[in-house]
Amino acid sequence: MTKSLALHQSPDWLLPAGVKAAFTTRVGGVSKPPFDSFNLGLNAGDDLNDVLRNREILRGVLPAEPQWLKQVHGTQVSTPASRALQGAQPYEADASVSNYPNDVLVVLTADCLPVLFSSRAGDVVGAAHAGWRGLSAGVLENTVQEMRALSPGLLPQDILVWMGPAIGPQAFEVGQDVVDVFLGQSHSDLTAAFIPIPASPGKYLANLYLLAQDRLRSLGINSIQGGGLCTVVDRAHFFSYRRDQVTGRFASLIWISSEK
Description:
Blueprint: E1 8-9, E2 19-24, H1 48-59, E3 69-70, E4 77-78, H2 80-86, E5 91-92, E6 95-98, E7 105-109, E8 113-119, E9 125-130, H3 132-137, H4 139-150, E10 159-163, E11 173-175, H5 176-183, E12 194-196, E13 203-206, H6 208-218, E14 223-226, H7 241-244, E15 250-256
Parallel strand pairs: 3-5, 4-6, 10-14
Antiparallel strand pairs: 1-2, 2-15, 6-9, 7-15, 8-9, 8-10, 11-13, 12-13
């Protein structure tokens, strides 16, 4: 982590030269409780001026304004072409890709899984917001598809992935309906991803990280890192909707730097 990114954590992720990635924590902003203090989400219920000031602080350590999304737990991917047509308004999507320098991609989360992508060559990057609904519906697959469209010849084995802070496997309780969705889609053994809760029949502890890995490996992607930070447990650093209900959002960002 460089001094200029003092408000952020740099992922423990070996990236190609020229590709930058970071994620924010809840520390370092101006928002008041329960959004204290570096909330970046406009729709969390926080004071609008505080959120805009936090975004201004973030912009000060980035090469450009981030490509903010209107996230809807879907599978739509924002691309340079679609953003050009959209104009200045946030694009309704849960992932984005780019092959342009200083095009800062961002997803906001508070338990859902942020997933960052880069080609080994560093010529195309992506970011996805993957809750269980988006994950099961194909948001990661769509992100990879759009990355490959921007970089003809890009092979899945040449894509690097980092999974950011999310609700951990000891905190993510789901019902049988969620289990059935994933078991019905995968050809892999997902037993380890769903641990029955003995005192609650029909309830399971789900591992979002394992579920994401299964989807990525089914595409031929094997360079997958991250997955060790739980938003629910780490109250000091991360917002968690499951833990607090009323809370802020933190950012995961990736971009191709123009500074080589």
